[in-house]
Write a structure and sequence with these properties.
alpha/beta, Diaminopimelate Epimerase, Chain A, domain 1, 33% helix, 6-stranded parallel sheet, 6-stranded mixed sheet
Amino acid sequence: MLPSVDTAAAAEFLRAGDDFLLTSHVGADGDAVASCLALQRLLHRQGKQARIVLAEVPAPRYRFLTGVESIAVRSGGEVLPAAWAVVLDAPSLARTGPVAAHVGPHTQVLNLDHHPDNRRFGTANLVSAEVSSTCELVYHLAVAMGQAIDAETAAALYAGILFDTGGFRFSLTTATTLEVGAALVRAGADLDRIAERLFSSKPLPEVLQLRSALCTLALYAGDRIAVMYLDHAAMAAGDPEEVVNYGLMIEGVQVAVLVRENEPGQHRVSLRSRATVDVAQVAAQFGGGGHRRAAGCRLEAPRDTVVTQLLAAIEPRLPH
């Protein structure tokens, strides 16, 4: 069970509504996409309506998840605010980007998240930084509500947990996380297929994109900070969520940084660290957030300025 987290308010929220909007953060990753899909299936099995709306089309690597083709994209224009909404894997409503327009002053909001900087913005909040992922949180909620988990739901939950734990390697992986993973495999999640699709199956342009990033690799602060860069042209191959981890593979590197130019002069930054540096605090300086060892932010400035600002924020946090 979840330590020190009460699922009662979230369970009552889901029982009370009958037509839900589900959404997550801009740049939805594996945990975000999978948790939305899993909760949608759980709600459908209760006879309720649930639609998923995200800021962008999910990355191709998630196409193997059942139901992903039904995800809608917020395309602008006026909308009628939803009566009931569930925001998953997002520390604030603002992190949903344009989808926030679907949430009005009278919308009832359930906030499901595992980020330590979550702002408890919901009408009801189920938030725990002690769990590995939002998918693990959804699993605990389903169990608390007495809901059976079918094979497709199990596959989505397992995929999100596998993604956010880096294959059960990262520090938020607990004994409970491993037990949840085992339960999902017993429920029908195909662990070989899911791991293959998430980590070992990429189109050629994405592999070449990794090469582009590695060609820009530079070390700073006595070889303790690794920085890579992908310009706007390189980003045409997609949004490489795991490339930043290559910088952290280098012996002695404490913080890895990947700067991605989504539009000319507009950069998304991914930060990863060993246990010595809290990169969530670094990201927070620029209006971003995340976890102690994995965080991100956005900066609008020329590339050299972005790198200079990031180094100035990171270097004072390095161990002496």
